[in-house]
Write a structure and sequence with these properties.
Elements (H helix, E strand, L loop, with lengths): L1 H16 L16 H4 L1 E8 L8 E10 L5 E9 L4 E10 L6 E6 L15 E6 L5 E5 L6 E5 L6 H13 L8 E2 L9
Antiparallel strand pairs: 1-2, 1-8, 1-9, 2-3, 3-4, 4-5, 5-6, 6-7, 7-8
């Protein structure tokens, strides 16, 4: 009888420690034309990221390099109106060009491992290359991007729903906030 009393709490502890089944692996878009993808992308929303903690407006500029690499420059306007930037490069990891390994040109970048499968996955891309959803395969980071900083509410809502369907915690999204006109 005592064994049953011992097993019941043990079973409750074991069952309480289980986690829900993980989301299925992310799939990227079937193909990205890097020439069309190049240019400026405005961040419309993102999951919180330590390296963007002070950013209120961010944009990324991509340029296809003769080497086949993609030049990357990320710019951010901070709460106090200053602009920060960081440059680096991205290497496609497969023929689809939808998975890239991005590394920034900092002294400590060599100490940060970049997954073999890439750390920049293009998960959704409008046919006209006007909007994109980009994330990491572990669903830790997510960016909703658009060619224009002003995305209408319906398009934003559709992107959020797509990100939700991909298993990202969209309730944590930080939406781009505009600085007062006097700070620009």
């Amino acid at each position: 009888m005592k064994a049953k009393w011992f097993l019941a709490p043990l079973a409750a502890v074991i069952l309480g420690c289980t986690t829900p089944a993980p989301h299925p692996p992310l799939e990227t878009v079937p193909r990205v034309d890097l020439q069309r993808y190049a240019g400026t992308w405005h961040e419309i929303a993102r999951l919180p990221a330590f390296f963007q903690r002070d950013c209120v407006e961010s944009r990324a500029e991509y340029a296809l390099l003769p080497s086949g690499r993609v030049g990357v420059t990320n710019r951010c306007r901070t709460r106090d109106g200053r602009e920060r930037s960081i440059a680096g490069h991205a290497d496609p990891v497969d023929p689809t060009n939808a998975r890239l390994r991005v590394r920034f040109d900092t002294w400590f970048a060599v100490f940060i491992p970049v997954p073999r499968d890439g750390n920049y996955w293009i998960l959704d891309l409008a046919p006209d290359y006007g909007t994109a959803i980009v994330g990491t395969p572990d669903r830790r980071y997510l960016w909703l991007l658009a060619r224009s900083p002003d995305l209408d509410d319906a398009a934003f809502a559709a992107m959020v729903e797509r990100a939700r369907a991909l298993g990202f915690p969209v309730e944590r999204l930080v939406r781009r906030s505009a600085l007062p006109t006097s700070s620009r």
